[in-house]
What we know:
Layout: E1 2-6, H1 10-21, E2 33-36, H2 42-48, E3 52-53, E4 65-69, E5 77-81, E6 86-90, E7 97-101
Parallel strand pairs: 1-2
Antiparallel strand pairs: 3-6, 4-5, 6-7
Helix pairs in contact: 1-2
Amino acid sequence: MMLYGVTLTEQDVIQFLHKWISNEAYHDLETLFIGTENTLNRDLILQAIEFEEYNPNEPEKRPAKIVVDVPYIVSFNKEYDLDEDFIEIKRTADGKRAFFFH
């Protein structure tokens, strides 16, 4: 799912993440990009969710890179390094992981 030019509040993002983490909603969501018109307070969002920061001393805990391929946008095939700019969020029910750029 790609959302560009949207206006969201920190509470919108927190509610979305809580629903995903608790497996209450968005079960089959694989990728979500959000480009907001407004600036969000990332610290406020991070205070409200449980997450794990990247630990370079434990690189085996997650992949070094992810590739995001959006088939309906021909030119959108990007590779991202999962470094300290990303935090890891885990879904409690099945352990599925998400990476949140902060």
